Amino acid sequence: MLVDMHLHEKRFSTDSFISLEEIVEIAKGKGLDAVCITDHDSMELRDFAAAYSKKVNFPIFVGVEYFSLQGDITAWGIDSFPDARIDAQDFIDQVNRAGGFCVSCHPFRNNKRGLEDNLRRVKGLHGVEVLNGSADMEANRTALRYCRELGMKAIGASDAHTTGQVGKYVTWLPEKVTTLPDFVDQLHACHTRPAIWNGSGYDVVDFF
After folding, report:
1. Are 155 and 144 in contact (CB under 8 A)?
2. pLDDT at position 5, please?
3. Checking CA distances to 208, which of 31, 47, 81, 143 falls within 20 to 30 Å?
């Protein structure tokens, strides 16, 4: 299964220029099996995404990109998130109490929104975006090094805000799933690998 795990949709991410309809069309064209919508501090797209997913028979998993006091964390399998910014550890603890899955996104991108060396300090974080479409390769390689050192799951994601970014980097999972609970279960249980769009398909990689 190939899924882009970090996408922003323009209805609730004001810095995005792409609609859900466009995201799904591009994802299908690139051979993806699902997409994740992780809007900035919002899960308001859930109802619309659920209806559209059923209409087009394509899995859409809605999570959130939450801006903790130490940096951005994407999460799935939670019903809500704090109204205000709180410590990253407190948010991670909330996700774990709900049985969810959380990832440090773009931890070393030069935008003051990554966890950076806090990756060594937090407990209970599940994955690291080792390939983020809005980060340069040096930042991505640093994220990969930390991911390997800390024994976390390696995640690939486009972090797309425009159509040209969709599906640039994605995550490989061993089995296809169609529901959010099954997606979260598989993320917890299985080995994940990042994948890179090569112009005609995806190269699943362990190093880059």
Report:
1. no
2. 98
3. 31
Locus of tokens 């930042």: 139
Report yes or no: 179 and 1 within 8 Å, Cβ to Cβ. no
Is-contact 134 106, C-beta < 8 A?
A: yes
Structural domain tally of the chain? 1
- 71 DSSP β-pair partners: none
Instruction: Write out pLDDT tens, residues 179-201.
Output: 999 999 999 999 999 999 999 99
pLDDT of residue 78: 98
Dump pLDDT digits (tens) for 82-136. 999 999 999 999 999 999 999 999 999 999 899 999 999 999 999 999 999 999 9
Residues of the domain holding 9 = 2-204
CATH number at residue 197: 3.20.20.140
d(CA 87, CA 93) in angstroms, rounded, equals 10
Pairing of strands 64-67, 72-76: antiparallel
Please state whether the predicted TM-score (pTM) of the whole model is above 0.90.
yes
| Three-state SS at 120 | helix
Q: Which two tokens stand for residue 139?
A: 């930042």
User: Length of the chain in residues, anyone?
Assistant: 208
Locate tokens 């997409």: which residue?
A: 35
